[in-house]
Structures are given as structure tokens and as C-alpha cells.
Write a sequence for this structure.
């Protein structure tokens, strides 16, 4: 039975998303990827609303059975961490409101699952995502590539 997974790389300015399908034979197929962008000039509440509305549109279109979200693991800038944390909250709430189970992974877990090396560079992860999903080119931008990697991590976890 096929499984649709939505991977999300949370951010306030750019929230990456990637939709993959795991078919009956376990093959991973990329359905779509991109970013939800919010304008820095807008107030915080309005930006979070954009993330919520756009995420709801993606969920309605693809009907994922699982949403995988990257955990906020480490951030040098406290202000950035707080903003990303708020975006994560909206993402988790949106998943909950749509009754879709969520799973969270650290960046280390994602890198390990995709490249077999927890300290892999971004370009190494992007190249592996390209290979694993049989894409013609490297997925861009970085936030979307990360979201696809998060979805792949979830697909390869033993979660039903």
C-alpha cells in the first residue's frame, strides 16, 4: 500500500516542504517540493498564518498519511531559534488539526538516514536525495532539499 509523506524543514522566512510517496515495493517517488515563503515586513502573526494556510493547501492536495518535521536541534541565534520554534508550533498544530500523525527527527538523524554519515555536508545530503528519489537535478532551494531528506528519513523509519 502506498504511503504519502510530507517532510517539513521549519522556518519563518522559508519553510521547506517535500512530498514523497513510498509505493508497495518500497520505492520512493518525489511528488512535489518547494518552500512556503513569508515576507519579513509582515507582522509575526500574519507570517505564521501564511505558513498555516499554505500548509493546509498542501495537505488538502496530497493527503499525506504522515508528517515528518525537523526538530530545532541547535541554533546560535536565540532570536532565530524562537521564531523557528513558533513556526514549528504552527506546523505541529496544523498537522494535529488535520488528524495526521507527526514524527520529528534531529538534523543528525536525517543526515544519518540519507547519507549514512551524521556529519554530512548539505551538498552531500542533496546529492543523496537526488539519487534516492531519482531526480534529474539537485533539489533547490536548500530548505526544500532538507524537507525531502526529512521525508526520506521518515519513509525509511519503521513507522506505519
Amino acid at each position: 500500500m502506498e504511503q504519502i509523506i510530507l517532510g517539513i524543514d521549519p522556518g519563518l522566512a522559508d519553510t521547506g516542504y517535500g512530498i514523497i510517496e513510498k509505493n508497495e515495493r518500497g520505492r520512493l517517488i518525489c511528488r512535489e517540493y518547494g518552500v512556503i515563503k513569508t515576507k519579513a515586513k509582515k507582522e509575526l502573526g500574519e507570517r505564521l498564518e501564511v505558513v498555516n494556510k499554505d500548509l493546509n493547501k498542501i495537505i488538502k492536495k496530497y493527503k499525506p498519511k504522515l508528517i515528518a518535521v525537523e526538530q530545532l536541534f541547535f541554533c546560535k541565534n536565540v532570536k532565530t531559534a524562537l521564531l523557528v520554534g513558533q513556526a514549528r508550533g504552527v506546523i505541529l498544530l496544523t498537522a494535529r488539526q488535520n488528524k495526521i500523525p507527526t514524527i520529528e527527527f534531529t538534523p543528525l538523524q536525517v543526515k544519518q538516514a540519507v547519507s549514512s554519515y551524521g556529519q554530512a555536508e548539505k551538498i552531500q545530503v542533496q546529492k543523496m536525495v537526488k539519487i534516492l528519489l531519482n531526480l534529474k537535478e539537485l533539489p533547490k532551494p536548500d530548505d526544500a532539499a532538507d524537507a525531502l531528506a526529512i521525508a526520506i528519513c521518515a519513509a525509511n523509519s519503521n513507522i506505519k
Q: What stands out?
A: Strands lie at 3-9, 14-22, 28-37, 66-70, 102-105. The chain has five helices and five strands. The chain has a mean pLDDT of 91. The radius of gyration is 15 Å.
